[in-house]
């Protein structure tokens, strides 16, 4: 009997040792792969973090929704803007601030993630010329915003503590990029793998550009002739670039060199739940994308249902 007791204990101990620990970033089974967003919300941008929380901006009224990725529970953390103006691309600084592109209002905003208060709003574009501030990326030195109608980038510099300045600078985009102010040009924006330059996707032409943040000079990235038209949000993780082609319901996955001057398409990701996904953010081994439903939210986008979907990288 004593021998059996010791053997059982040993088996239990061995089992405890042999059970592998959950890998970093792994998702418990409870993490849903479809997230329900409010009726009429009209999502476009997504940012994730700090923690397992996704933030979505509304094109309808600018409110910001926070969704718990583990449970799917959601709540509005920043109320609708008055007067109403959109929230488009979003990025979190992983501390306390959310940077928001303001679409046709020609603005960018900094929102306190905890209180939902708008800390600063920048009026990037003024006058009668068309503007659509579309997306934003954060670098160690500042936040960079694209304007799909104007051939410029806007930079909000950071101080040494990462706090945004009260002013901004406008950087003209130069080089052999061909711009059509009557439609959407520069859309998603990311950093090159080496962090020395910016990447922008030009939606109307499907071309990917590398932009020098000092001079604004744009050079076309060689992606082997891959079709990236309707490219919307982009995301760089390591040396992998994810390009969301919204109306095509597909993510193009590209392996980049460190400088971001060339890349090769590795694969494409699609899912039957995609319904004009626009932007993309990552958590663990998943990509999350909101369905903007441009042209499919009929008969009225204000009463349509919206979701975001998770897919494996």
Write up this protein.
The protein is mainly beta. The protein has one domain (31-312): Methylamine Dehydrogenase, Chain H (7 Propeller). It is built from one helix and 25 strands. It has one helix at 2-18; strands at residues 34-37, 43-48, 53-58, 64-68, 74-78, 90-92, 97-101, 107-112, 118-123, 133-139, 142-147, 152-157, 169-172, 174-175, 186-191, 198-202, 207-211, 217-220, 231-237, 240-245, 250-256, 263-269, 281-283, 286-290, 306-312. The strands form six sheets. Strands 14-18-17-16-15 form a five-stranded mixed beta sheet, with no helix packed on it. A hairpin with a 5-residue loop joins strand 7 (97-101) and strand 8. The longest helix is centred in the first third of the chain and has 17 residues, at 2-18. The chain is globular. Mean pLDDT is 92; it is low at 1-23.
> Which class of secondary structure composition applies to the elements?
mainly beta
What's the CATH topology name? Answer: Methylamine Dehydrogenase, Chain H
Tell me the major beta sheet. 5 strands, mixed
Poorly predicted sequence stretches spanning 5 or more consecutive residues: 1-23
Widest sheet: strand ordering:
14-18-17-16-15
CATH secondary-structure class: Mainly Beta
Strand count: 25
> Could you tell me the radius of gyration in angstroms?
21 Å
- The CATH superfamily appears as YVTN repeat-like/Quinoprotein amine dehydrogenase
């Amino acid at each position: 009997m004593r021998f059996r007791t010791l053997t059982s204990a040993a088996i239990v101990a061995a089992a405890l040792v042999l059970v592998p620990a959950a890998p970093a970033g792994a998702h418990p089974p409870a993490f849903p792969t479809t997230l329900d967003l409010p009726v009429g919300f009209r999502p476009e941008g997504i940012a994730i973090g700090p923690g397992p929380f996704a933030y979505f901006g509304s094109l309808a009224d600018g409110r910001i929704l926070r969704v718990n990725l583990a449970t799917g529970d959601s709540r509005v953390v920043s109320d609708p803007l008055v007067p109403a103006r959109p929230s488009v691309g979003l990025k979190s600084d992983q501390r306390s601030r959310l940077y928001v592109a303001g679409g046709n209002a020609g603005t960018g905003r900094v929102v306190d993630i905890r209180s939902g208060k708008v800390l600063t709003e920048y009026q990037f574009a003024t006058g009668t010329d068309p503007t659509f501030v579309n997306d934003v990326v954060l670098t160690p030195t500042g936040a960079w915003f694209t304007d799909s109608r104007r051939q410029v980038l806007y930079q909000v510099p950071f101080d040494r503590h990462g706090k945004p300045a009260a002013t901004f600078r406008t950087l003209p985009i130069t080089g052999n990029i061909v711009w059509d102010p009557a439609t959407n040009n520069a859309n998603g924006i990311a950093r090159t793998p080496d962090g020395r330059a910016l990447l922008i996707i030009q939606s109307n032409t499907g071309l990917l550009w590398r932009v020098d943040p000092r001079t604004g000079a744009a050079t076309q990235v060689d992606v082997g002739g891959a079709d990236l038209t309707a490219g919307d949000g982009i995301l760089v993780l390591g040396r992998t670039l994810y390009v969301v082609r919204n109306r095509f319901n597909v993510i193009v996955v590209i392996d980049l060199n460190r400088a971001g001057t060339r890349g090769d398409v590795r694969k494409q990701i699609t899912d039957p739940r995609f319904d004009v996904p626009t932007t993309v953010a990552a958590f663990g081994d998943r990509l999350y994308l909101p369905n903007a439903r441009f042209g499919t939210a009929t008969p009225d986008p204000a009463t349509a249902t919206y979701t975001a979907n998770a897919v494996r990288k």
